[in-house]
Amino acid sequence: MDDDGLHARLKAYEGRPAAVAGTGRDPVNAPMIRHWCEAMGDGNPAYTGPDAIAPPTMLQAWIMGGLGGHGGRAPAYEELLAVLDEAGCTAVVATDCEQEYVRPLRPGDEVAFDTVIESVSERKTTKLGTGHFVTTRTDVRVGPELVGTHRFRILKYAPARRRAAPPERRPRPVVNRDNAGFWEGVREHRLLLQRCASCAALRFPWLPGCQSCGCPEWDTVEASGEGTVFSYVVLHHPPFPAFEPPYAVVLVELAEGVRIVSDVVGMPYDKVRIGMPVRLEFRRYDDELTLPVFREVTA
Amino acid sequence: MNAGDVLPPLEIEITRTLIVAGALASRDYQDVHHDPEAARAKGSPDVFMNILTTNGLVGRYLTDTFGPQARIHKVAIRLGAPNHPGDTMVLRGTVEEVREDDTVVVRITGDNGIGRHVTGTVTCAVPGAAREGHGIGSVTVTLREDDPR
Q1: Domain MaoC-like: where (chain B) (predicted)?
Q2: Which of A151, A163, A209, A297 could cross-link A98 (Cys pair, CB 3.0–4.6 Å)?
Q3: Looking at the domain assignment, is residue A173 inside a domain?
Q4: Confidence band of B43 (pLDDT split at 50, 70, 90)
């Protein structure tokens, strides 16, 4: 079906009912109010005690289907959602909520509701994907009395394909004859430093010759694994495959005096601090890749 | 209170717990609000806050600011950048209108680390709002103990 054909078909649902004589799954009640207030961190005393009212913004919670599903949903609404599903718009996200509270709800109130499909937009392309906005309007009543209205807009959309859809693997290290010994050490969970055979200066990263005296002969020393954060940067942009910004890239000064660029794991990027004591560990990222990383040493 | 008055901001830490507790307290069992794998399968990097929780936080912001005697009559919100775990949202408000009958209209915004999560308008009755000298500064703002400020 072309876009115009689909939109005409969708438009036909405007004005049709989405729910008829639906009823709230539970009467307005103090436990649900308390759970709501705890979740929101809302300490308003108006929501507790013998004269408690329900938080007004809780209106929609009283008409939600919950895990049991929506009892009062009308066939027209199910059909509309099915047409959108068929058109590939399988995902849904709420975008707008407009509520008017005619009178406060109180524990014991039993709500009933009717919902009408107000409008279905033409095809819109958003960051999430392309789809249609569906706007419904619900009248919430207690007995014959209108207590609130609730206009709700959702976007039914076809999810845009994310560039990083298959989880990207971390970049592979370039292993050559000058650094092969280092990677062999990593495979055995040993962090090896080079030591000059002539002047005994330690060096890292691995190099063919000594930075101090130029001597090409060397042997290795295994790092103790103790170190401190010498410096770090937090990377926000640009994103690279397999890395989710923001993240901290850390320069660790090892107890032996040389420095290594690595990660501090087990800690949010914004908690990393210069001078923080850290200890080496080895993290396996996939079948072929294990890397030395660091973790904060806590007292 | 006068049009143009700026409300003190409210910082909300977007924890995974808040997202899940808010979804369940609002009886919203959409998997994208509690299941990270399902959220990723639907094109989102992680779970995200549902609109009912945002609505509830906006309501809390207004009554925290104006006090428990304030009555909220209307809330209209539009969502933009999603609230993912680990982020912080800062709710801000500006008084747009104070009517003679103490009705106050407030424009609110909520910004997180990736952009503007919510924009909206709240209409509420604040006893004495239209009286000369009733400023926002005279109202006690109640914050949770774990709020960073």
Answers
A1: 9-106
A2: A151
A3: no
A4: confident
Structural domains in chain A (count): 2
B43:A91 CB<8 A? yes
Count of structural domains within chain B: 1
Q: Which of B51, B71, B91 to mutate to test the interface with A (most CBs of A within 10 A)?
A: B51
Domain span at A133: 3-159
- What is the C-alpha to C-alpha distance for residues B30 and B95, in angstroms, rounded to an integer? 34
Residues of B with CB under 8 A from a CB of A: 12, 18, 21-22, 24-30, 32, 42-43, 45, 50-53, 55-60, 63-64, 68, 71-79, 86, 142, 144
Compute the distance between CA of residue A162 and CA of residue A143 in angstroms, rounded to an integer. Answer: 48
Q: How far is B2 from chain A (nearest CA, A)?
A: 23
ipTM: 0.89
Distance CA A90, CA A83 (A): 10
8 A C-beta contact, residue A175 and residue A182: no
Is B57 contained in some domain? yes
Range of the domain at B78: 6-134
pLDDT in tens, B87-122: 999 999 999 999 999 999 999 999 999 999 999 999
- State the CATH number of the domain containing residue B75: 3.10.129.10
Q: In B, which residues are within 8 Å of A36 by CB distance?
A: 25-26, 56
